[in-house]
Amino acid sequence: MDHQSDQRLAGLSAWVHQQLAHLQLYQGPSLPLETVSGDASFRRYFRCRYPQAGAAGSAICVDAPPDKENNPVFIKVDQGFAAAGVPVPRILAADTEQGFMLLSDLGDTLLKQVLNTDTCEHFVAEAFRVLLEIMAADFHGDPLPPYDEALLQREMALFRDWFCDTFLQLALTGAEQGMLTAVFDYLAATALAQEQVPVHRDYHTRNLMVLPDRTLGVIDFQDAVLGPITYDVLSLLRDETFPAWDQQRVRQWVRQFGDALREKGLTQVDEQRLWRDFNAMGAQRHLKVAGIFARLRFRDQKLGYLEHTPQSLQYLLMEIRALQADGPNCLRQFDHWLLARVAPALARHFPRTQELLEQVAEARH
Predict the structure, then answer these.
(1) How far apart are CA 351 and CA 349, in angstroms?
(2) What is the band of 99 on the pLDDT scale with cuts at 50, 70, 90?
(3) Is 3.30.200.20 the CATH number for 3-104?
(4) How far is CA 318 from its chain centroid?
(5) Half-sphere exposure at residue 92, Cβ-oriented, CA atoms within 13 angstroms
(6) In angstroms, rounded to a whole number, what is the distance separating the alpha carbons of residues 133 and 330?
């Protein structure tokens, strides 16, 4: 831990102690803070356990440097989601100037740890129920930022700049650049044509907590936007850090979610159009994610994310193939180019790339 982090931790510890006393939760000697996790941002999480009559209490302490993290937005989204019934942590105390927060503790069981073929029907149904609550959240008084053309394009550009250029060292020709531009334009247009709803933007198995009654709590929502209706369901069902589900099962889940959306009056699109929108959103997200994983490695020196890029490429190919029948010709060119140029370059770093892509080829027949 560097000196600045150490100073911030000491400051957070003193602040937490004050807040616990103010809330009449604990008064006594200073308590240790246990590291819960850091994430891909500059935010750090700690747990503080304190004695209570007959039991132990605990709270989550957040160190989110105000020059790096937008804490007022975190508070706004938390309150907006909570008002809609979304099970998010309660904000017990916050100091946005220092970048400290004290949150209610949703435990430490991630959905990722308990999700498997035996439990998936229950937990996917729970995740869908919570997602419908997120979509119903009302931010009219202080709108969420829009997931607009500029943001969609900036995200996809990460694939070209960080994944292809910085990581794979591919020197792209003018024709390849033009093909990517055409693909990006098509995917952005498809995303913008969808109904726009509150979007968590990282709704997956590491940001859903399993509560004691087997319902789900939601964390890490501060990047929420007003965006495409398929974005969060796509993040959940095609999580690049989680083993791929059988795609027939995924299609069935998307069908179920579409039924729920229509029942709530959130969409009028039919099953076929929703499946197209789901895959187009997936292609956009997996382009972005491949770029972000490369940027985390080469700019931020955060290891461990890059190893998930073969899974991202597998999903990207599946999604592009699901779109080809109704999509422009650039999708077919992109498919061939991914196999001819990108896959061999990635396989040099991660040999399992080839095996994952063979699974896509088998799924076609």
Answers:
(1) 6
(2) very high
(3) yes
(4) 19
(5) 21
(6) 37
What tokens were used for 54? 């007959």
Domain with CATH 3.30.200.20 in the chain: 3-104
In this structure, CATH architecture of domain 111-364: Alpha-Beta Complex (3.90)
> What string of DSSP letters covers 220-257?
--TT-EEEETTHHHHHHHT-TTSPPPPHHHHHHHHHHH
Model pLDDT for residues 319-346, shown as the tens digit of each residue: 999 999 889 999 999 999 999 999 999 9
In the predicted structure, residue 41 carries a pLDDT above the cut 80: no
Residue type, 191: A
Residue 108 carries which DSSP code?
Answer: S
Written as six digits, the tokens of 243 are: 């083993």
Strands 33-38, 225-228: pairing is unpaired
Cβ atoms of 73 and 222 within 8 Å: the answer is yes
Task: Give me the residues paired with residue 35 across strands.
Answer: 46
**Are the C-beta atoms of 287 and 264 separated by less than 8 Å?**
no
Helices and strands, counts by H and E, the chain:
13, 9
pTM above 0.85, yes or no: yes
pLDDT of residue 365: 43
pLDDT at 339: 95
